[in-house]
Amino acid sequence: xxxxLEATEDGIAWLTLNRPDRLNALSPAMLTALGESLxxxxxxxxxxAVIITGVGRGFCAxxxxxxxxxxxxxxxxxxxxxxRRMHQLPLMLRTMPKVVIAMVxxxxxxxxxxxxxxxxxMYFLGDIIDAETAQSLGLVSRVxxxxxxxxxxxxxARRIAGGPRIAYGYMKRNLFAxxxxxxxxxxxxxxxxxxxTAMTEDHLEAGRAFAEKRRPVFKGR
Length: 221
Known about the structure:
The chain is α/β, with parallel strands linked by helices. It has two domains: 4-161, Alpha-Beta Complex (2-enoyl-CoA Hydratase, Chain A, domain 1); 165-211. Helices cover 48% and strands 10% of the residues. It has nine helices and four strands. Strands 1-2-3-4 form a four-stranded mixed β-sheet, sandwiched between helices. α1 (28-41) runs parallel beside α3 and α7 runs antiparallel to α8 (183-197). The longest helix is centred in the middle third of the chain and has 20 residues, at 76-95. 22% of the residues are buried.
C-alpha cells in the first residue's frame, strides 16, 4: 500500500496521505513521495491547483512517534541532514508556483499543522483547539461540515485552477519574498513580475473581459 495517493481531475491535483491507521503520520516513504510529487506538479501545465488531504479520520498526525526511538541511534550530523531533507517540503509548498490548499479532514498535529503569531503559545502549551477556534485565529480560512468538505474544497480549487496560472505563480513568489526579503528587493521583484505577467495572453484576456463586462477565460499562457 502506497503512503501517498495522487489523482488529477479538472486541472486539480489531489495528494492524499494514506496511512489511516497512524492518522497519516509522516513516514519516510510519504515524505519522499510528497517531495517528488510537488516537484513534478510545480512544472505541470495541466495542473492549476494542488489539494492535500488525508485518508480516514485524520489529516496528519505529524511525525510518526513509533519511529522516533530508531532515530535516537543516529549520529548528530545524520539527524540534522534528515531534518534538513524534511524541511524542504514546507519550503517547496511556499515557493512552488502552484497554489496549494490543505483540505483538513480531521486532526492536524505537529508537523501536520503550521501557524504564525499564535503558534508559539500553541507549541509551548500543547493545547488542542477545534476547527472554529483555528478559523478565528487565522490558522484556517474556512470551516465546513464533513459532508460538504470535498465539494467546497474542490470548488475553491476550481476557481484557482481556472485563474491566470502564470500570474498566480509570481504572486506566490512575491508573497514569500515579502516575508523574507528587504523591502527594496521585494519592490524590485514585484516590478519585474508585473512586467512579465503583463506580457501574458491571460493579461490581455482580462482586459478584454473587463471592457466587455464578462468573465475572463484564462488559458494559463
